């Protein structure tokens, strides 16, 4: 990493780092502005752009919390902080984030106008204390918001990604999840059995997030009931003919017989896998 950071840029970087440590997610521009006393989120955005240019962070376009600290940033600008390993990484709102330890502890405001990657520990400590005092209320509010917004989603059974299976409808457990992980708010989770949808990343053992609806469009991935069996497939209707397509060349499409009881139970809006989230 190259260059120097201004005092303000180091404050913003420290605020981002501290917020991730304390809440598990990066701050928004509005939260950065509120914590550091900027007149508008635009000022925070300017500093974020500068930090991005200097290689301190990366930003996911279109994501309010899409800020990621570069591992090299922690090592060079915060040499006394241990960098996280990949297995501690998770994703919220499109942003990878880490629980960093230990948090810098420290004292008042900055005197320097620019700070190099080899900044002394005492200067970093001053920045951290100054920023920590101003960000405590903001990070607490973020924590409260996360708690309030969590979804409680029941795991209610299993669904076939293969030959339709008899649905086992029972409440296995409940997961607390961030709604930002899903394309639309789901109502429940189903455990996937089989590999017929593997080409779109739906694998055996995954938890499929389902939004209840009977209204679907061609091309959507649906949870369909045929008689007493339930399956997940891609939906297509042409005239009176309904075909359920797999996403695996080893499986054949299912053409629904008009004499069979058929109904749509919902659409897939996300997927949960150990240590991985897709939406």
Automatic annotation (TrEMBL):
Keyword vocabulary terms for this entry: Autocatalytic cleavage, DNA damage, DNA repair, DNA replication, DNA-binding, Hydrolase, Repressor, SOS response, Transcription, Transcription regulation
Active site residues according to the UniProt entry: 196 (for autocatalytic cleavage activity), 233 (for autocatalytic cleavage activity)
Enzymatic reactions: Hydrolysis of Ala-|-Gly bond in repressor LexA
GO biological process: DNA repair; DNA replication; negative regulation of DNA-templated transcription; proteolysis; SOS response
Compositional bias (Polar residues): 102-111
Top-level enzyme category: hydrolase
Gene3D superfamilies the record matches: Umud Fragment, subunit A, Winged helix-like DNA-binding domain superfamily/Winged helix DNA-binding domain
CDD domains: S24_LexA-like (cd06529)
EC number(s) recorded for this UniProt protein: 3.4.21.88
Residue ranges of DNA binding: 29-49
Subunit annotation: Homodimer.
Function according to Swiss-Prot or TrEMBL: Represses a number of genes involved in the response to DNA damage (SOS response), including recA and lexA. In the presence of single-stranded DNA, RecA interacts with LexA causing an autocatalytic cleavage which disrupts the DNA-binding part of LexA, leading to derepression of the SOS regulon and eventually DNA repair.
Protein known as: LexA repressor
């Amino acid at each position: 990493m190259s260059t120097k950071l201004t005092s303000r840029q180091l404050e913003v970087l420290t605020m981002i780092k501290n917020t991730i440590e304390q809440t598990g997610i990066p701050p928004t521009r509005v939260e950065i502005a509120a914590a550091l006393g900027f007149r508008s989120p635009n000022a925070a955005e300017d500093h974020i752009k500068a930090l991005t240019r200097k290689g301190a962070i990366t930003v996911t376009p279109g994501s309010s919390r899409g800020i990621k600290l570069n591992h090299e940033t922690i090592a060079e600008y915060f040499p006394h902080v241990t960098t996280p390993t990949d297995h501690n990484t998770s994703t919220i709102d499109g942003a990878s984030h880490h629980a960093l330890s230990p948090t810098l502890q420290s004292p008042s405001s900055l005197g320097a106008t620019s700070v190099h990657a080899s900044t002394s520990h005492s200067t970093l400590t001053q920045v951290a204390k100054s920023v920590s005092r101003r960000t405590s209320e903001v990070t607490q509010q973020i924590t409260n918001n996360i708690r309030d917004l969590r979804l409680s989603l029941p795991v209610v059974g299993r669904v076939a990604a293969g030959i339709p299976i008899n649905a086992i409808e029972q409440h296995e457990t409940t997961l607390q999840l961030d709604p930002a992980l899903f394309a639309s708010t789901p109502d429940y989770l189903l455990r996937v059995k089989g590999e017929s949808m593997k080409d779109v990343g739906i694998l055996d053992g995954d938890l499929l997030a389902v939004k209840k609806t009977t209204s679907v469009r061609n091309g959507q991935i649906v949870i369909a009931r045929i008689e007493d069996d339930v399956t997940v497939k891609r939906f297509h209707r042409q005239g009176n003919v309904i075909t359920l397509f797999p996403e695996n060349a080893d499986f054949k499409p299912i053409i629904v017989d008009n004499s069979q009881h058929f109904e749509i139970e919902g659409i897939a809006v996300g997927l949960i896998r150990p240590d991985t989230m897709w939406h």
